[in-house]
Amino acid sequence: MAMARACAAGLCADKPARNEILYDFIAAAGRCRRSHGELLRLYDPVAHEIFYTDAGIEIQKQFLHAMESEKWPRMLPEALVNAAPRPLLEWMKSQAAAEQPQISKLILIWREWGSGIVFRRERQYVDEVRSAIAKLSLNAKITDNATALAALIRFAGEAGASGSAEFVLQRLNHADAKVRAEACLAVQRFGGEKAPEALLALSKKESDLAVLLRLAEALGTWHDDASAGAAALSVFERCENAEVRRALLFSAAHAA
Fold first, then answer.
1. pTM, whole model, 2 decimals?
2. Across residues 145-157, what is the average pLDDT?
3. What is the pLDDT of residues 10-57, one digit of tens each?
4. How far from the centroid of its chain's Cα atoms is residue 77's Cα?
């Protein structure tokens, strides 16, 4: 991280070729944040200072210098999530309140941070990410854009943002199929003792195959819920698509 901090001095919005190289290094070096804080304190004190002290916030901010570039370097999302999480959270919150949020850039960050949480690489800021998701879900410019909405719902599911469950459940009735499909996946990741009524209602009327595949996967989450089993059987009987039926059978494989 000492070298990553040195690289930050060379970042410049109007030098994309240089930024590509520097962000490759910063992204790789920043992966050390996946380690426990005490390990960093003992073996990488510079990283510990950057990630676990208030003084480190100013260093993290230096990694944001190329964010205003029209085209982001390929490794910028990973570099920011790894090496600049605190100012990145503040940026997401500012985007949640913006009249014209930078949707394409937000989606890149959501993809990176969401996968980091799913695979348990994020040690520090899961709760803060969930809080940011709740704020982002209130921005109409984001929720009125089907592509952005689908990406945000996926992010909420990957982050386990169960506080946004009601927001996601309401989108099971969205007109766009990709939004409904992501909502099914997110609801599955939220879990719970019983399948949500909104998901069971969707199983009675959904016809889009992509959504039905997600629905089939989701219903398998509630092995002990008879209503989920009945919904899965109903979908199996009315849908003759082989992929959907196979997904339903796989979902039922571990049922009691």
1. 0.94
2. 98
3. 998 788 899 999 999 999 999 999 999 999 999 999 999 999 999 999
4. 12
